[in-house]
Every structure is written in C-alpha cells, then in structure tokens.
Please model this.
Amino acid sequence: MFKNTFRALPALAIALTMIVALVPAGMAFANDADITLTSVMQEGEPITFYLTDNSQISTLDPQRASDSVSIEMLENLFLGLTNTDPVVPGGITAEMATEWTTSDDGLVWTFTIRNDVPWVRWDPVTDTAEVLRNVTAYDFEYGIKRACDPRLAAYYSEIGCPLIKGGMDWLSQAEDEATDEGADLIQVEALDDSTLVVNLEFPAGYFFSMTPMWMFRAVPQEIIEEYGDDWTELGNLTTNGPFVLDEWVRGVRRVMLKNELMPADLRGPGNVERVIYTIVEDAGTIFALYQDSQIDISGVPSAEVQSVLNDEAYAEELVQKSDSAVFYLAFAHDKAPFDDVHARRAFSATIDRNAFVQEIQQGRGIPMIHFTPPGMFGAPPVNKVGVGYDPAFALSEIEAAGYPNCEGFPNINIVTYASAGTWAEFLAASVERELGCDPSVFTIEQQEFSVLLETVSKLNATEDRPNMWSLGWGPDYGDANNWVHDVLSCESENDFMRPCTEVDDLLTQAARESDPDTRIELYERIEEKFFGPEGDTPIIPLYLRVGYTLLKPWLSYDVYTTDGIFGGPHRDWVSIDQAAQMAARG
Model:
C-alpha cells in the first residue's frame, strides 16, 4: 500500500521526500484561474507557516493511522519513544525515552521515560490549555498494547505486533470475541512512571529503528475511555507534542498552534508558532498560490517543470528531493497469465526504466530494478541486483511461459490510480515492441486511490481482480525488512496472492538475525531471489521518486531535504522571516 506511501543516493546524497504541496487560511475560490485568499493576518499575528495539502486526515489516533497525511499530523502532535533525526536520514535520537538498554539476547528492551512532559487538552473555543497530568511509562504501555487490539482493525498492527511478545496472541483473536483482557497477553510493562520494559518475540535487528513509529506512542487512557472513538475530535484531543490542534474543518483546512507547555529542550530550533494547512487538490492551483506568495512551499506541477527549471527567478527557491518512495506495477499471482513466473519475468524485462523516468516522469526519478531503495539498511546498490531492461531475456521468458512471440496471450486488465494511466500505456507499448503482443489485449482502467485498494484486495474473488495494478511504497522505518518483508512476504498483506517460497524463509532469518553484516548479506540474497534472472518477480519495480519543490526565500528550513523521510516532517524545525513574508503577502 502507498500510505503513502516515501526516500537515495550515497546515504541520500540526492535528499529525499514526498512532494507535498503546502497552503493558507480563508480561501474563496472563483475558478482555477481566479483565486482569492482572504488575509487572516492582523497586528501581532503568530509567526505562521502557510501550507496546502491535497488530502484529508483519516484519523488522529496514533494506533490507527496508516496514511501519510494523518501520520504527518501525529508527528507534530504526539511525542514518540524516540525521534527520527531530521538532520541525519535513518538516525534516531532521544525523545520521551532518554535512555535505553537491551539484554544480551536482544529480547528485552528497557526504556527510561522522562517525567516532565504534560498531557495537554487544547480548547479552541476559549483558547485555553488544560493540563491533564504528566506522561508516564504507563501511557506507553497502554499505547503499545492498544496497537495490538484486534478491534481497532489497524493496518500497522500487522507490522508492529509480531515483534512484541504476546502481541499476536491478542491481535489474532476475532474482533467480535476480543476483550480488554487480551492486553494482559502482551509482555510490555511499566515498572514505574519512568521505566518501560518491552519483551520481543525474537531478537529483531530492526526493532530499534521502529521505536519512533506512531503506533508505539503513548496515548491517554482515561481520555480514550471517557470519549471513545470521539477522543480525537477537536476539543477532546489530548496531546503532548510540539503543537496542539486549534482548528479542523474537514475538507477545508486545519490549524496547529505551538504547545507552549512542552519542555523547551524537546522543541526543534524553528520559530513557527502556527501552521495552517488549506486543502487544495489541484497542483496547478497550489502553484498559482505559491506564485502569489500566499503559501510558503509548493510542488512543481508536471506541466511547469521545464519552465521552472529554465526560469532564473526560481533558482534560489528550487530544491530537489527524494522521498524514498518506490513505485511499481504489481501482478496478481492467483490469475493467469501471471500465475506463471516466466510471464512475470518477461513483462518486467521489456521495460526500459531509464526511458520511463525521462518520458513519463520527466526525469523526476531514479530507475529501480529491485525494491529496497538506497538509504535503507540492507539495500543493495541501485544497479547491482535485478534484471532490468533485457529484450532477449524477455523473449525467452515469454516463450517459456507458453506464448512464443506472444501468440495466444490472454486479455490483460490493468488498474492504475488517476495519475498513473501513462504507466500502463508505457508497459503496453513496451510489450508490443519487445514481445509482439497485440495492444488490444490490454484494458487500462484508472481509479481513485482508495477504490483501487478495494479493487485489488485479496478478499475479492480471483475473477474480479485485475491482472496488474500500480502502487508505491514509502518507508516507515529505515530497514530492508520494511520493504521486502512488509510488502512482498507471503505473510504480509499480500494482495498479490504470492505463494510462500524459500525466499520467505530467508525473510524470517534476516528479521531474526542480530549481526548487521549477516543481515546485509541476507537482504542482498533476498533481492536476488525476488528480482534476479531466476527470481520470483513478484512486482515490476519502476523508479525511486525524486521531485522538485519550491520554498520561499523567507523560509528557513535547512533540513528540508532530510526531514520527514520516516514518519512526518517536523514543523518545529521551520523558521519564518515574518516581516519578509508579510510584505510579500501584501
């Protein structure tokens, strides 16, 4: 799933991120060419970061969140056990946990939790903050156990809970039979207010890289029990992070204010006091708002890339960044013809990924022939593992599949999300050119992203599922396990319906291995078994996304290219020259 699901060269020399467009308050739309922003500025207004977003938040519940929009908000509202370093991609720093130790066998982790961070409930009507109490280790115990509650039906439970001893004992219970007593099965314990002990099922070499994740964050039990599912609503929401939620008008805008009650040493070096997101779906409209200085940051629409690159006026504002998202075309392994590995290999080898990046992505990407991108622990070099573009190999494989010169090849249904229809067209042209397939065998359908996810679900009957579809994956933590296991394993979500093979045994071995060098060797073998000449070819990796972003000159965000690769960007690391901003906004 793309959670949106995003990150590249020598330790991210090209800087990585998902190009998220960001915007301001009080918008009135006449049409796409005539936009008016009603100024919310007044004397003494807070220092404000004006952004846009093209999607709504699905939830502000840390244990339930699965999409990048929600996760970005959670990063700024809730503190984690640890924090992803905004400066060093893949680095982890202290946050609520100030110290941590692990047992010799790697099965028991002990965290020392700081005791000076308050739970804050912000009332946007009265503009007042109520301090509930300070955060304790018991809040982390409750949050981690809650992540494994089957009644939440949370996507990331399947990723995090198998690591926690007893986690799957509760998670595997039927939703309608599960009770609160299931939490007692999970071996996570607060010994006192400041000491948290987490027992693992196996010595997972990647567990520590997961400790900043939202699903393992503390949440206030008494607030959840009081308000139920409404605990995340405006006015009820009780948080402990650098910002509080001041406004949330679904589909319109959301506003965060600086949490003045959080200890200063936990705050980033920025000066932003208010963050305003306005929901704008059209990239051209966002770009127009940026040109009019009504927002501080914007992506570059495809139609504007070349003009922006050639315009010296943008030279000091343009930043290139990769979000480490790898995009791909998926196969239905339970459906002919791609239940045959030779057909999968043949299709993959017809694609010239360099041409794809230049023609379809206008150069905004790095061709990928395996799955785990640079910058992740265990990732092989970009061109070391995988077949890539090889027409001769493709011809031999399509013949091995029983379709010499593509004779008798069945009809193929490809589903893509709205912006990826050209990907399927590129594939169809490649297959026609290299294999001789009649282009009329392809039916291409574009769907809204959430509809696509429902369409390809393994819960659907085989005959109702497409043969192929487009998707992408961005990292949750900096380890190859998050890629080859969490996406491709037969024991993962596995909408591909890929049957288990010997590579799944290697995935288990790599996850349980404690020696880093051995893990690196194992992950290279795994990528070879997936994407080498004799590989399973579960998907067709296409490219690692690299995009362009514009940042206004009054914005000081030195870590932009490295921040937010995992989780969400830290808005408390942003500084604004308010005088310059206000002058430009008029």
Confidence is low (pLDDT under 50) at residues 1-43. The radius of gyration is 24 Å.
